[in-house]
Structure formats: structure tokens, C-alpha cells
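[SOLVED] Need 3D model of a two-part complex

Original post:
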Amino acid sequence: MTTTHETHQPEPTEIDSVVIRFCGDSGDGMQLAGGQFAATSAILGNDIATFPDFPAEIRAPRGTTFGVSGFQLQFSSTDINTPGDMVNALIAMNPAGLKVNIDDVVAGGIVIANADEFTEVNLRKCGYPEGYNPLEDAKLASQYQIVGVPMSRLTREALEGADMTVKEIDRCRNMFALGIAYWLFDRDLGPTIDHINEYYGRIKNRPEVAEANVKALKAGYYFGENAELFPARYHVSPAKLEPGVYRQISGNQAVVKALATVANKSGVNLLYASYPITPASDILHDLSGLKHLGVRTFQAEDEIAAICAAVGASFAGQIGVTGTSGPGLALKTEALGMAIIYELPLIVIDVQRAGPSTGMPTKTEQADLFQALWGRPGESPCLVLAARSPADCFDTTLEAARLSIKHMCPAVVLSDGYIANGAEPWKIPDLSEIEPIEVSFAKPGDNGEVFMGYKRDPETLARPWALPGTPGLEHRIGSLEKQDLTGNVSYDPMNHEKMVKIRAEKVQRAAADIGPTPIRGSESGETLLLGWGSTYGAIATATDRLRGMGKDVSSAHIRHIAPLPPDLGDILARFDRVIIPEINMGQLLTLIRARYLVDAKGINHIRGRAFKVDDLVRSVLDIIESKE
Amino acid sequence: MTATQTNDVPLPTYKPKDFASDQEVRWCPGCGDYAVLKGVQKAAAKLGRRKEDFVFISGIGCAARFPYYMNTYGMHTIHGRAPAVATGVKLANPDLTVCVVSGDGDLLSIGGNHTMHAIRRNMDITILLLNNRIYGLTKGQYSPTSEPGKKTKSTPLGSLDFPINPLGLALGAGCKFIARTLDVDLKLFDEVYTRGLKFEGCAFIEVYQDCNIFNHGTYFYASQKDTKPENTVMLRHGEPMIFGKNMDKGLRRKCERIEVVELGGGVTEDELLVHDETNPLLAHMLAEMTYPEFPEPMGVIYANPDVPSYDELFAEQIDQAERINEGKTLEDLLLGEKTWRVEG
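Solution:
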């Protein structure tokens, strides 16, 4: 931005990367402030990774520790894969935010607090002892650069005379805080001003609110400039990303874009039937606005109805899709088995969250792998794929749809709360380079000839997709066991065994489409870290760090879990030791040990959050060193 | 795209047997399902729709074997979920004639939720509830429509459950077409089922059906030659409600209630209630009339064709969305609002 103010401005110090966290009450607008900081940094060309972390309560009681909402962001001039372990700069809008988050700040890190909120009442509310104020704690002051700013008062002063209630004015505090952060890290105010004007000014038609927010943002920035409270400011240069056009994308957004692309590339409309559930609901919200792109949405009465409607749509010739989280997947179990015996295309998006039962809905976990693979009655195999990062949700969902249609077999896509809500830059693909998804519906039958509903393609084992409305193909599908070829009801013992094996083999045939598994590090050696899903960022970063320490550690990350990549057995055999880090009790670990008879070791954190790279590195070192 | 093929071939003249599949029917001899199957095949043959445009969808239970015996498209689904599957079929291809056929356990117990919601949305489907007031396929436990105190395998001292009133449930869920018929009354079945299939919205038809193995005679009070005239009243739109072997009884309004009166002896037809199938309040009262206090209503109890079906509104909304977003492409979606370019 340009400014006519003539004040002393410290020259920004160039640094590689910064982790910043905004925190406050769940009504304080922290997600908005953090999201804006992320968007601005992405536009400036930094690599970014974000981690929104919020309570399940929409508006938890103000000032409580359990009501603290946070948004963490790493922005960098180099390639990064995680939102970072430790925080370099913490913006705390209240004492509860500071109390919950201060331990994550690096020694010497910056803590900017809204001093007006550090009142006796608020300090007690979040459990600080009588007479204690962390902003006046000499010990803390020696550990961190703590700066108390009277943000509430300064925001009110900046907006004096605005045609708004005090409550509305107070809501602009997050923009004041963001302004300070923008000054501190040398960010351009332009993108956020544009966003405010677009959102409040145009969409919400509240130009006075737009104006107030812009004023508060600028006031925060000028405060940083003038107050001389900060000894230094910092600059993070653009990262060297692959050339192309980029945008910021979260995992849920990437699923949405992928499903719209599936409708486009297949030429077949898609029905997304779903029941709202954290953290998958945003997929339904965003898809509901895409009716002009061949996407239909249906908010069903429950999880079961949602998958059943999707199956019905697939039978009638659309691409049936449903989305949910772990508890919802459990409810969909029986209907997923039905889709498996029907042998119809179906895509099930499972945005995993911490369980069991309702568990911790807004926290992440990878513990639905077994459920996706085996959580159904009878022998009922289906395709299972897992996305490794927000942007990868696009490719993984697209791939799942392609395989599901090609093999006439349901596919489960595993995402999780961490990548569903987290965001990173995404190089927007060139649509002309995405292969079409081939769909061939069965052609009208000859008069009198009985249609063979379960006669298969010899290569893929897919059965014909025959749509109601097509003359001559009238047939019944059912949840009872099918006779081979005809699809009629059959209780024949040998037929049942044959059909069970065909359904399993059909999933295995999809392995022919899986490319070589890339390895980070060396093709063979001492230690392989094997991962799946959202642990990619932490494992990749840990691998680089361990190799930097001279350790012979490599890593591989798999997208396909059913079927497993065909080269995985060979890869595992080329390493002396296999370690499988997971945010569960060792689910892929169990599968790999059983399938390949490899004495793999697990690193298992089940804390409702992603691995911290430091923890992972330490855990890997523990295993390596205990052996050495 | 819709799945229905445009077909220049004129509509064939079907016979009911054209709608019979090559599968051997496996219901118990004497089961009421046979009569219903025959009735459905007959009504479908003369509906004026192509065989390939029908989809019969069922859940689990004896009645749920139904689709296998129809030479149309069909889905035998899982327990209770037929209305939800039918919803997806209809949303994907509104040109299809979709009919759910299932039993009282399937549609009112395990699947009560989906039945209620398919009705509430006014999906353009026909729900045929084959109500035999017992669980047949699991060999004779009481069902949600069994009478209180019913002794079954799972209730040796009698059931403690109060039964659900299917017509009342459908009305409560906002159903726009409600009818009741008997498995043995082929003429009435044909009449109400044909109307149900043609109704643009959710048509709910309860069929009193005999399970001659586990609940034989449960509807004898309403189905036999001598009992039927006395214990049921045939509703005809615009006609007074008269019943009885000698057509000598009628239904009259008494304050806010309905009473049974004997005709003659001072009571004339003019005083009787006249059936108005468009009157929802009357429908609620009729649905509450149960044997033995009242004759049970048969025929079309309620029909309100003036409410658009969900499918119709769904299609309208798609058109609206396409108008609003005209010119917006998938490329626009991928780009979003904020992009930046990284130069090589």
C-alpha cells in the first residue's frame, strides 16, 4: 500500500518462513482474519499451509478456554507441507486465547494481545489465579516479546461516529488485529480491502460495515507503523512454485471442484445426496450452488437416506455421490454393501474426525480406515482411496470417480478434518489436459433376448450399466445374492463363492491403473516411512529433516489402499525397516503387516490433530536409535 | 441428460402377462401378495406407459420380493430404505414411473422415517403398503400395525405396543393422495392403484392384506362377503357415506364428531356426510374411524392434486439456477475469485 505518513519504519528483515496464529473467542472473527492473512500471503506468492482449529460449539460462552477458536498459518518462501509446529507470532484477542496457545509459541516469539480484554473478570473466567495477569508476568516477558495493545479502545476511537452499534463496532477488532499483523509482516492491504468491499459492500449490502472494517484494518496497520512497539518487521519473499495460475484451496473445496469436473468430464449429471455433518457439510453447501454445472444436490432426512438416494440415482443413470464423516459412514454401512452387490458406481466421501462415537467432531483423525475397508457385513470389498493434502483432494476424488465408473464398483474417498478445512496453494489444472471419463450405458436390447445384467467386461470385470427407460433391458437388481451372468436371485453354494471372488477380484483389477509409487529420498536403504492420507505433509517434512541430519530415511505415501499399489511389496522389501506413522492406533500398520509379512513399526498419535514434525522426527529417531 | 430413450415406436398394447417376469413366484400359496401382483400387472398394462419406464422398488420382507416378479426395471433394496432409493431414482430421471411396494414392517417400522419424508416432500412416487399386520419373513413377530395384546412368538403374553395408524401417519406427514383397499377386492384395487400411479405427487395406498400363515383372518372383519358391507364404507367423491348389507346405515356429523346412524325412521340421506376427497379435515376424521366402533373407510380418502411435486420444484430450481448462472463455466469455478500467477 502507499502511505503518506512520514514515520520511522524499520526495514523489514528477510526470513524464510513464519508461523502465525490468530486466536480468540469463537465469535471474534479469527477464522476470517486468519483466512484473509492466508489469502493475502498466497497472492503475494508465498507457499502457505493453514490450520483452522475451532470448537464444536458455535458460540461457546465468551472468554472460556474451551470456546477458543484459532487459525494457524505458515507462509514461506520455500516449499512447505505443514502449517508448522511452533508459532512465531501469536495474536490473542482475549486471555483465554493466550492461555490456551502461549505454550506453542517459540522462545522469543511475538505475542500481541488485546490488552482491553485482560480485565480482572476475564482473567478469572479462563482460570488465571487471583491477581495474576500474564501481560504483567516478568517471566513470560523474558520468554516472549509480549505486546499488549488496547485494541478494543483503539477500534472504537477509529470508528467514532460510524453509524453502527457498539457491538458492531467491536466486531471490527479482528480487522484492527489483522492490520497490525499486516504491518508486522509487510503484507499488502489491497486483497483484504477488496474482499471486505465485495462481501459486506456488495453481497451483504452493508456499505457502512464495509467502510468500518476497512477503517479498522488501516487503523491497525498505522498503529503498527506509528506505535514503535515492535523492534522489527519481517518480510517473507515469494516461494519458487511451479509456474502457472494458482489459487488457495481447502480439501472440502477441492472435493467440490473435483465432483463438478467429474460431471463435466463424464457428460453425466451427478447427484450429491448428503446429511449435514461436521466436517463434511461444506461440500454440500458448495455443491448446492453448482446446478448449472450438471451437479444436483439433495439434503436427505438422514445418512442412510442420503446414500440410498445416491444409489438410486446411480441406478437411474446419474453419478451417485454421498459425503459424510465417520459416524455417518457407520450409518451408511448397509447401503454401501447394497451398492457393492448392485455393482453400481458410487462415490462416498468420508471426511474423518476424531472418534469413537461423536468423539471430537471438529478435530482430526485417521481412524476410519478399517471402517472403509471392512466395516460391512459379509465379504464386501470396495475401492478405498485417501487424499494426502487439501489440493490432493481434487486428484483423489477425480481418480475415485474414474475407477468407480470404470469398474462399476463403489469407491470411498478418505479425507479428514485437517485437510478438509486446511488450505494450500493449488495450481489450477488445465481442463483440456484432464482425460474424459468414459461412460457407456448399455444399448437397447433385441426383442425377446433376455438381458444379462451381470455379464462382465473381461478386462475390468465391470457389469453393464443399464438404465431404466431403455427398452429391452428391463431387469431387477437386488440385495440378495446374484446368479452369475443373469443377476437372478441365487442360493447356489458354488455360485456364491464365485460371486464373492469376482467382487474381490474386480477391486484388485483397478490396480492396473495405479502408477509407480514415488519415493522421497532413496529407492532403497535403511528406513522407509510409509504413510497414507493427511500425514503426508508431516512425513515429507520429517523425511527431509532426517535426511538433512544424515539419516538414511526415505518415505512413500500411498493414495490407493484398496487395491494397494502393485509395486508396494517390492518397495517395502528394499528397506531394512518400515515405519508407519498414523493418526490412529495402527490401522495401515495392521494391513501392511498382514499383507506383506513385514515387521513394520507404528508411530501413533491420537490427539485430534496432525503430527507435529518435531514429534515425528523424535519418534523416528527413537526407533532408529533403539535398533542401532 | 435423462435416461429415457426417445422412441418413435408406438406404445405397444400390453397384456398383464407382459409385465410378469420369468421368475417363479415364491410366496406361500394363498398369500394376499398374489392378488396384489395380479392387480399391479393389470393396472400397469393399461396405464399408457412403456414397460421400460416403470421402476418397482421394495425393501425387505415377503412383500419386498415384489420387483423380482415384474418384467420392468426393479430394485429389491435393504430393510426400510425403498422410499429413499426411490427418491434418488426419481431425482435422476423424473420421466420414470416409480412405485414403492413393501410391507408394514418395512415401511412403518424400520423404514418409518423414510416413508414419512418421501411423503412430506411429495415425491412423485406411488407407495403401496401391503399391510398384513405381522412380520412374515421372520416367521411371525408382531408388527407396528398389530393390534394391542397380540400374542406372537416375541410377545407370548401379548404385545404392549399401540399400533400406528398408517393413514393418519400419511396425513400427518402431509400426504396429498391417500387411499385404502383390500387384497381381495380386485376392482377397487385397480381403481385406486391406477389413480395413485397417475397422481402427480406422493400417492400412499394401504392394502389390507391377509397373511394366511402367521396372521390368517386378521381382516376377515372387513374382507368377507358378509362382514365387508357392515364394517367398511366405500367412499365416493360427492356421494353420501352409506354402508351396510342393505345400504341402510350412514355416517352423520354430530357436533365435531362422526356418528353411525340407521337410515329410515326419520333419518334421511340428506343428513349424511358427503365425501369430499379434497377436504383435509374430513380426511383426518375418516382416517381415525376404526373397527368395531366405525366402518373403516375404503377407496380414495384424500386427493389434493394442486400441490407441486418435489420433482417438479427440483426441475424448476435447476432451470432457475441455470438462468442465474448463465455463462458461468467449470473453468470459472476452478479459478474462483482470487488467483495469482507464478512466472517461470
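Edit: Residues 1-5 of chain B have pLDDT under 50 and may be disordered.
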